[in-house]
Design brief:
Elements (H helix, E strand, L loop, with lengths): L2 H11 L7 E4 L5 H10 L5 E4 L7 H16 L13
Parallel strand pairs: 1-2
Length: 84
Amino acid sequence: MNDEEALWIWLKKANLNNVYLGTGSEDRFYPLHQQLAELLPATNTKIINGAHHWPVWPQLWKDFVTTMQAEKGFEQCIDLKHPL
């Protein structure tokens, strides 16, 4: 079994309300990410411009932390100024 198969098996059992997906619209894995996004609540998916490169990930992290702090009341989330 490869990593992708293992992930899909795990997802079948997971509470998808607790699964988050962040990706760049030009990421080489984007077609697969789109399939996963269809299974998740819309608020748990963030898609921004960019490829599978480092600059995309800090922005996605900031977006998720901001959302969790504002919408879900997770005030204990990491400080956005923390060096990733």
